Amino acid sequence: MSFTPLSALISSTDRPHTHPVAIDDNGNERSWRDFTRHVMTLSHQLAARPEKEWALAFEDSYLFSVAFFALCHANKSVILPGNLQPGALTELTSCCDGILHDTRVIAPKGLLTLTLPDALIPTNDALPALQPFTDLKLTLFTSGSSGVPKAIEKSLHQLQEELNQLEQQWGKQVQQATFFSTVSHQHIYGFLFRILWPLSAGRPFMCRDLVYPEQVIAQAKGHHVLVSSPALLKRLSEQTNSDGYCSIFSSGGPLPYDAAQHSIASLGYLPIEVYGSTETGGIGFRQQTSESSPWRLFDGITASLNESGCLSLRSPYIDPQQWYHTADICELFDDRHFLLKGRADRVVKVEEKRVSLTEIEQRLCQSPWVTDAASVVLSQGGRQVIAAVVVLSAQGLDIIQETSQGKFKLSLRHAMREWLEPIAIPRRLKFVQNIPQNSQGKRQHSLIEALFTDE
């Protein structure tokens, strides 16, 4: 089956009507006929509406795909929020006109909503065929170093260039395998690897995520591909599956060498790690055949180091005429291979999710109980966790005296759930009178971290 450009996918005539597009938890298939009919139905509904900017918030990958292509053909703008927490979705009201979602996502109040699959009921009228679209406006939100979710715009050309690279690099390897995933399609990695790439090549994907390591091991079969992250691959048990996946992809952060080797024993394949970001798209990849295995740049990308020792890029997935400066400290071995050595800003990776320490502090200070806060990343039991020192307001001090410090911490963490994903909510909290600072007023992170050493 041919590899079809995104713009012409729905109008393609080389797919059999019965060809599977997606599979649900019960093994029921959504066919190519189902997919094109659903996209057509929703697209004509959206085209008749005046709203231009639409956010997508789905747990079901099939319904997400329908909504995405329907918006593209209706000439609407697409917004992907950084997470599906209620507070984060509510903040989108200032930048979108409406939200498309499935029944598993709680839509914010005060915003026009369309719920799928309810909106996919076809009319009795014959609908005209959809023509290829010429461009799209896609905005993704990701953690920014300023603490404010950062809007990243992607063009049709940029997405298509990256998909072409994935198919060129690994298309023969995955052939007509079914794609399973443990990562969300709401982020660029899952969006490309588990949705757009399989759809373009006619490979079926699962509607829902695999959540537990046992599920991942159970699906390790020779005609399956796994799109995952280090967070889950590090949690694999000693259980093994003799069949093994035909390919495993991992992204979100470097995979520890031991976890990579354990994946061979448990899942039958050495993971292909993909390095990149929402801003840059894919940058490089590797398989850890040794503890010193370097990363290799994707074709078409040129790299150098800036004065801070951070990687700078020229890439067709950004602007090929401009250098893009990352915050990733690197060592270049030659013009194609490099070693990652950490980040230079305050956007950190915890369990392979991007977390803005600045945003955590701002969210804490939104509470009437808090006047100041500083967050750090600590190592605890071999894992990284978020910790925060907090200066309480008079109201916060009164509540602690009325209840207890333990109950107060639970209440504060619960309030943070409106905006932050669970991994970003501080697991350790310490109340202080002042945040440690030097004579220039800069926070002393080493002293902040030391406040937790006696616990």
Automatic annotation (TrEMBL):
UniProt key word Transcription: no
Domain AMP-dependent synthetase/ligase, chain residue ranges per copy: 134-286
Coiled-coil regions listed: 149-176
Gene3D superfamilies membership: 3.30.300.30, N-terminal domain of ligase-like (3.40.50.12780)
Coiled coil found in the keyword field: yes
Pfam (any one): AMP-binding
InterPro entries: AMP-bd_C (IPR025110), AMP-bd_C_sf (IPR045851), AMP-dep_synth/lig_dom (IPR000873), ANL_N_sf (IPR042099)
Domain AMP-binding enzyme C-terminal: 359-442
UniProt keyword list: Coiled coil
Name of this protein: AMP-binding protein
Organism from which the protein derives: Enterovibrio gelatinilyticus
